[in-house]
Amino acid sequence: MIAFENITLHQGKKFVLNNVSFTIGQSERVAILGGSGEGKTTILKLIMRLIQPDEGKIIIDGEDITDLAEKKLTEKRMKLGIVFQDGALFDSMNVRENVAFYLREHTNLSESLIRKKVSELLDVVAMSGTEELMPEELSGGMQRRIAIARSLTASEPKMFLYDEPTSGLDPVSTAKISQLILSLAVHGKGFVIVTHEIPVALKTAQRFIFLNNGSICFDGNKNEFLKSTNQNLNEFLNNWREQRPMG
Amino acid sequence: MVNIYKKGISGLKSSLTKLQEFYLTSFQSMIGMVSRPFYGRDLLEYMDYCGTGTLGIIVLVMVFIGMALSLQISAAFASLGLQMYTGKVVSVSVVTEIGPVACALVFAGRAGSGMASEIGSMVLRHQVDTLRVFGIDPIRKLMTPRVLGSVLMLPALTMLGNCAAILGGYYISTLGNNQSGAVYWESIAAVFYPQYIFTGFLKPLFFGFVIACLSCYMGLSTKGGSLGLRSATTAAFVLSTIFIIVCDFLITKIILLLF
Asked: Does a structural domain hold residue B98?
């Protein structure tokens, strides 16, 4: 479904990503972990081809999209639902307008059908009754759930991409978002979650990719992840091990 | 020495790249005016924001400009016994020069900075990325309605601002300097000379386009958090101001050559 072949990206003279390669299957549940500024969000933006790599190839569904024109990219992007950090809801629109945005722009559905579809999607993310609220009236967790509902309107995404979906949230909201992410990963639909929160990654993902200095320094399953001898990964995990409650 | 030379070359390359991007986005925004999809609701919303929202400030500024101009001209002309020409000088200078420039500067400060900060904030909060993911061209959706709205609204605002300045001048001439109101209005008829009307209409049209294109481009190229947003907003206003002043001179020169 998603393949990176020797992707390199610079920002000035600094490497953001250095010769990164991986393949992610459609039904895989992958967590990309790493400290701040390690290029985690950049990977999601590259998958969506919102930015262009300096070197390497991005392959989605068997097609090289590295140099694909913006118009043709829409079709590829529609196969993936992305939820940006903080939800990225449009400030000037209420919840209904945000969720209905794609339907209004790209379909000729009647207003009543759009309203029905929006209600159904809000039900999926347990946000019914918030249609008239503005984004500023919602908590961080609620905004992200609305953003997830909005990502479902575009089409039936084959995979979801989540950019720090639980950062800055309280434990209850974090648990709700994690549960929602898992509940959407059915019928062979996988996801890529970018996070620096290890408990969220452990709860949701099956495969773990760890980034350090713009390179992949670990790629494996949960067991391998927790028992890895990689020094950088261990430093990252030790901080969490020291803080987690015993038992 | 070599380092300075390399930095100079790299700075020049970067500036030329940005200039190229600016021309390209401005051109794409113009294409958006004549091809589907049209964002009529966004256009109306923006016209309301920059038109209705800026009108009060422009009228206030222009009334005082007209009053100050009338005071100065009356004082200068009084010693020559030419006070009857106050209305003519006020109106011609307001319609051809001061009006378009002052209104454009106020417009750049209010609407232009607003555009840059709004779009810049959308970029930083991934809302522009979301548009692209949904297959919507941010230039058509965000830039075209703002450019078209500015091109339509700034001439109208300038016209109203000019009227306010002439009225301000009238107030000072008649009530402050005890001149005849009829003489003031009669002398204003000179402003209906085609060259002045054309100048007074062409300048705000062009300024509206430049302000909106620059502000939207600065907003769309915002990078680096709140500091980046501050730089983008400041750059939008500073560049708009410079362009307005330079273009004012160039347009005046061209019109004087043509007429």
From this structure: yes
